[in-house]
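Cross-posting from the modeling subforum.

Setting up a comparison between two proteins and wanted a second pair of eyes on the formatting. Protein 1 (sequence, then structure tokens):
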Amino acid sequence: TTADGGFTATCAVTVVPNKIELKPGLGYKLNESGTIVYNIKPETKVSDLVKNFAGSGTIEVRNKDGVLLSGDKFVGTGAIINLIAGGRVVDTLIVAVLGDVNGDGKVLANDARLVLRHVAKLGTLTELQMLAGDTDGNKKIEATDARIILRVAAKLHKF
């Protein structure tokens, strides 16, 4: 009560940023700048992927060409996770799928070839491709990563 007999009230306001939040303990990781989510297994369905994220709005996934993906479609490297709030995109993450270096959504010998060309200094991988190609998680691109990709492509190994 105030001196003149009036009442006062207080309230606390919490401002929640419109950011895509990665749910903890799932094995997914973010790069240093927080723009790429990686360590995603091949043949991860959109419906399974979106369960691992939260945000103040709707989460949508588009392939690397901008086509909206849903349900049982597999996510490939270069796919984009958007947080939609108020009818607009307020946050975005780019997806790096283990072994899918070329972004076609599959783990094939061609992905191993790209890794080997990088190792031999005959080509250069982008940060996104390196996160997809670092299959052993040692933060380096080496011939062993290409070997693992080939074993996955031949169905002799799973991530």
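Protein 2 (same layout):
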Amino acid sequence: MNIPALAASAPAHPLVCLAAVAALLLLSGAAICMDLAYRRIPNLVCVAVALCAVPYWFGISGWSGMLSLGGQLAISLALTLPLALAFALRLIGGGDVKLILAMVLWVGMAKVGTMALAVAVIGGMLGISLKLLNLVFWRIRTDNLPYGLAIVAGTFVAMAGDLGRLLANACLAAA
């Protein structure tokens, strides 16, 4: 992408975006650590992840970014029933459901499918890795999967292009 194209897609408030992404990184790290250590993702972390999406979308395109957030909220609400069913069938944990619903607020509407595919692939690789580790070291816990890692990684895979453009624009603005 050339410099004029970067400038044309520049965020309305790049520092607000960067602050929101920094908060997302910290909260994602907390979610991963809690999930790996205790197999639980606290509600407070999921709520904070969801709330930090508001300044991110505002920073991307000002008040019109709130329309994008509204679309993301609609997708998140549409995913609630299938994810609740997966939770009821004990296919996924409650914290994982809440984290997915919060993370969906961060990706663009066109990238929800990319996020879902990335989460599934990374989760599959994580599950296979844990099973292999269990064969070598039998004390590895494999009765449930710390899926928060896959959810966070899949979200960042889906956001990679947007985050790259955001950083490039922030660097151009600083220069």
